Amino acid sequence: MEGYSSVSTEQLAIEYGYKAKPSALLNTIFTWTVNTAAKTLLSVASNSKTGRTEKWKPTDHLKYMMMLMTWFTVWVLRVFMDYFPSSLGPSPSHLPGSSSPIGLLDLMPSSSSSSSALSPSSSSSLDLVLYEGSDEPSIKALGRALLHETVIMECILMIFTIMNEIPATSRKYQFAVDMADRIVDENVRDGQAELLHINRRVLSSAFARTTGLLYRTLQRQEAAGDDGFAWPSRIIKALPLGSYLVSYVKGFSHCVSTFVNSIGTSQSVKKRQQLAIGGGEEEIRAEKLAQELLWIMDKLRLCGAVDEALMQWSFASGLASFSLTSNPRVQGSIVKISAILVEELSRVDYEVPRQVKFRLLGLWLPLFCFAGNGLAFPFLTGYEKAETERALDRVISTLPATDQEVILTNWLQDFTISASEWPNLQVSYDRWCRSTRKLAAA
Length: 442
Description:
- By secondary structure, the protein is mainly α.
- Helix content is 71%, strand content 0%.
- The chain is elongated.
């Protein structure tokens, strides 16, 4: 900070032109406009000598209007020169010395990660500012550093985009995953604050993109499955526990339709096969995206950027709704992501907004209750389930009594009708009941 105090704002302004004197171009335009205005004034004055009584011709009116407009332009240019001297010069949002201008606003951390932007680790980028006569890197070096940071970010984002789009059956899919994994791990091992910041921004963007893709895939999958069962399923879902019961009704309807359609025409059979193939592709894509989302979640935790995922996951209401009736393998990945976020939420060393905690628990506790436990292997081990229950208890205890009432009442309704014995939040429920009795007695 001593370097900053040794240089006045005026010196930086004169040196780099951010609030400099009016540019030569602006001065030239102003001088030319003043001369033109003076000439038009003389021309009008010569036609309006004392004693001249004839009417003005249309050309005289036109000259008079041109004179007024020219003098008005002189006034506007004067205002620009006095109050906006650099409006036609280089903007401080664009650094010189690079092949293309880089917007500093696009390179700043997002609002959700503003705390990390104010941390000491991010101050190193501010120390690159140059003042006259010092040995610090130049402004051009800062521009090149920001340019390289943007290039690295765009390259990694492109790899994540390719990873989302390429089918899992492709020979190059594992190549893309390994490349993204290697770049992220190398940035972590390097330990530089700039590279860690790149990781956080890229992984946060990839998490948001993959979450949106998974939601839209599950939406298309459910729409394809409801083609022959649209209105009944909507009516059932509107009833209490409708999302839980609709899967059983669909299974019964599928058995009946299979028997009826077995005597159908070859054309109807071909159409059903095409629909089944389309639904199968969406199901495979949903499984792939869910696994990628879990992988990104692990990388976010490795880079210490779980706060980004917490905010996004607390607003993923559509995904939470579709995950209740999704494929068990998709449910498995989503349950693991939710369990990781709950554990991270219970031990963060910074203040998390109450709304984020409330929405996260309200959206994802029903999935914990109704998700299948996995056929080949369980989603979570016994130890992981116990740790998640303790984390849920710690998070619930930090909420106000009214929020605890909503969360625990909904959990009790879901837990009592589900086939699962997890998560058992009886300890949290009993503690809330005791605190409520004390308040009522007081």
